[in-house]
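for the writeup, i need someone to sanity check this before i put it in the appendix. the sequnce is what the collaborator sent (i think, or maybe the updated version? ugh). structure was predicted straight from it, no edits. if anything looks off just tell me and ill rerun, i have time this weekend
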Amino acid sequence: MLRNPVYMGMFQDGRSIRPGSHEAIIHPATFAEVQQKMDARRTKRTYSKRYNIEFPLRGKIVCPGCGRKLTTDTGHRKLGDGRLCSAVYRYYRCRSTAGGKPPCREIRYSAYELEQCLCDRIGESKFWRRFIKYYPDKAKALSEIHSAWITLDLPMQFRYMAMIVEEVRFTPKGGMTVTFAPEFFKRLPIYEEPATD
């Protein structure tokens, strides 16, 4: 609570802090002084990076409710006796109420299911045929990339997916549209530019 920039009239959106549409209730100098005192009292053990978890689609998924980028979140499920399950659940969720903006309805997607769905779609032959249609001169290379993609394990697919996906949007009918980086196949280490004679 004492680290929340909302008290000085700001809001945090991901890693950046920007002015909010609300008034400050504490002066920024006082806020900074409190932060220094809290940092001085902090023990060496921090929990900010307790999970080494990657989100390959971080900053790339657009909220269908408000149009802002979704943030990432982790959590545990409670067992019947109230204890927390040791498994970590990852989510992409909307926090559009930041900065005093009107709230959009709760939007949260299982990170694993969304990432798996996208990896499966990229692994489909029709996905690659569509790109071959636009890049006929790269047909052989794209076919080889498709063959290589389906042999990669899931963590490696996630890593490459982070490099090639620019944006993910959900359609009103529950579908998904994906925007890829221009000539995304060149970003994949498994792509080799054909030799020219």
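Residues 51-197 form one domain. The chain has two domains: 1-49, 51-197.
thx in advance!!
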